C-alpha cells in the first residue's frame, strides 16, 4: 500500500476547508496546508486536522506556492486539492482502493474533475487533471496563473472524480495578476496568452479576448486541447457580439485540430437552424450524437452537447420538416435526461396532440400548442 500526503494551498477558506479535509482524511497519511495570507479562521480549522500548517508570502504566483507546498510533503505520493474540492463517498472508496492497489511503478494518476452538475445530478462540465504523483519524481508546477503540473513517466487514468463545490470565487483575481504582469513588461508565452484571453472573455471584454485568442492560435505553440478550446471561445465571443458568421467560422476552424467534437457540431447545427436550413441542421445535430466520447478528456467538456441538447434540437428540426414521429422520438430521448424540463414537456404535449389525437381530443382547443419549443 502506498502512502499519501494530501497537499493544499489556501487563503480565507474557513467556509469550505473542513468539508474538503473531511472528505479525504481517511485516505491521507499526512495533510499539509500552506496558507498564503488568511485573515479568517482558516489556519485554526487547518490545525484541527494537521500540525503541518505553514505560511507562504503571496507573490501572485500559484506555481510557486504549490511547489513550496509539494516540498513539504513526506509521503511516497502527493495528492493535491483546492479547499473547495471534495471527494464524494463513492469516489473516496475508489481512492482508498487505489491506495491499496496502485503499482509502485506508476508515477502519476489522473482523475476526473467535475466542475458542474445539472438539477438531476448529472455532470455537465468536466475535465481531467493529474492529481496523485510520486514524490520522488520531483514533478514541478508551471505557470503563475492557471498553473499545471508537468509530469512524465508511467501514468494511470483512473475513474475517480474530484468534485468542485465552490461557494464563492474572486472573479477578478486572475485578471488583476495578468494585467500586473503585462504592466511590468513580462513576456507571455502561448499558454499565458490563452488563459489571459479566457479572463478577458469571462469579463465580457470580447474584442480584447478575440485579439488574444487569435494571437494564441497564430503562434502555433498551443496544446491541441487549448487550440480547440480557443476556437470554442472565439465562437462564443463572436456570438456575444452578434456576428454569427464568425461564430460559424471558428466552429469549423476547430476541425483543423482533430475529430469534430459535439460542442462544435451543435454550434454548426444551430447556425443552420437559425437559417431555417432544417435538413442541414439535423445532419450536424446527429453528428454531435455520433461523435465518439473519449475516456480521457483533458480539455473542458460540456456533456449536454453529446446528450440531451442535440436530441431536443433534432425534435425542432424534424417538427419543422413535418416528420413528427422522429421529432417525438428525439424529444423522448431528451426527456430521458431532463424529465421535468419545461421545453421537453411542452414538446411532448404538442406532438402527442398531433400523433395521438384520440388521447387529446377532449382538451379545449385554446390549450393546444402550435409548435415545438427550442
UniProtKB/TrEMBL annotation:
Q: Where does the signal sequence lie? A: none
Outline the extent of the Glycosyltransferase 2-like domain. Answer: 5-125
Read off the InterPro entries from this record: Glyco_trans_2-like, Nucleotide-diphossugar_trans, TPR-like_helical_dom_sf
SUPFAM superfamilies to which the protein is assigned, alphabetical: Nucleotide-diphospho-sugar transferases, TPR-like
| Superkingdom of this protein's organism | Bacteria
| The protein, known as | Glycosyltransferase family 2 protein
Protein species of origin: Paenibacillus terricola
Q: What is the lineage of its organism?
A: Bacteria, Bacillati, Bacillota, Bacilli, Bacillales
Amino acid at each position: 500500500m502506498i502512502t499519501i500526503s494530501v497537499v493544499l494551498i489556501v487563503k480565507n477558506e474557513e467556509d469550505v476547508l473542513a468539508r474538503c479535509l473531511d472528505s479525504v482524511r481517511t485516505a491521507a497519511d499526512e495533510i499539509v496546508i500552506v496558507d498564503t495570507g488568511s485573515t479568517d479562521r482558516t489556519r485554526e480549522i487547518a490545525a484541527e486536522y494537521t500540525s503541518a500548517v505553514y505560511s507562504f508570502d503571496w507573490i501572485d504566483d500559484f506555481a510557486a506556492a504549490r511547489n513550496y507546498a509539494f516540498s513539504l510533503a513526506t509521503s511516497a505520493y502527493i495528492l493535491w486539492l483546492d479547499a473547495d474540492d471534495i471527494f464524494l463517498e463513492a469516489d473516496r472508496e475508489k481512492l482508498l482502493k487505489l491506495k491499496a492497489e496502485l503499482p509502485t511503478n506508476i508515477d502519476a494518476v489522473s482523475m476526473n474533475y467535475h466542475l458542474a452538475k445539472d438539477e438531476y445530478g448529472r455532470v455537465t462540465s468536466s475535465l481531467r487533471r493529474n492529481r496523485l504523483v510520486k514524490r520522488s519524481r520531483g514533478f514541478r508546477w508551471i505557470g503563475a496563473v492557471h498553473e499545471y503540473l508537468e509530469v512524465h513517466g508511467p501514468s494511470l487514468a483512473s475513474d475517480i472524480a474530484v468534485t468542485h463545490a465552490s461557494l464563492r470565487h474572486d472573479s477578478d483575481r486572475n485578471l488583476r495578476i495578468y494585467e500586473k504582469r503585462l504592466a511590468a513588461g513580462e513576456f507571455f508565452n502561448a499558454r499565458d496568452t490563452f488563459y489571459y484571453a479566457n479572463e478577458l472573455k469571462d469579463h465580457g471584454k470580447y474584442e480584447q479576448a478575440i485579439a488574444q485568442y487569435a494571437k494564441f492560435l497564430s503562434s502555433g505553440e498551443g496544446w491541441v486541447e487549448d487550440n480547440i478550446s480557443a476556437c470554442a471561445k472565439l465562437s462564443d465571443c463572436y456570438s456575444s457580439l452578434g456576428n454569427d458568421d464568425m461564430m460559424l467560422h471558428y466552429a469549423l476552424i476547430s476541425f483543423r485540430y482533430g475529430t469534430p467534437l459535439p460542442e462544435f457540431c451543435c454550434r454548426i447545427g444551430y447556425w443552420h437552424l437559425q437559417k431555417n436550413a432544417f435538413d442541414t441542421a439535423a445532419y450536424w445535430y446527429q453528428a454531435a450524437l455520433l461523435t465518439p466520447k473519449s475516456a480521457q478528456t483533458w480539455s473542458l467538456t460540456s456533456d449536454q452537447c453529446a446528450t440531451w441538447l442535440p436530441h431536443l434540437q433534432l425534435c425542432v428540426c424534424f417538427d419543422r420538416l413535418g416528420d413528427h414521429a422522429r421529432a417525438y422520438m428525439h424529444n423522448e430521448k431528451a426527456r430521458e435526461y431532463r424529465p421535468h424540463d419545461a421545453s421537453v414537456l411542452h414538446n411532448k404535449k404538442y406532438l402527442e396532440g398531433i400523433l395521438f389525437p384520440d388521447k387529446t381530443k377532449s382538451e379545449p382547443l385554446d390549450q393546444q400548442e402550435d409548435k415545438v419549443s427550442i
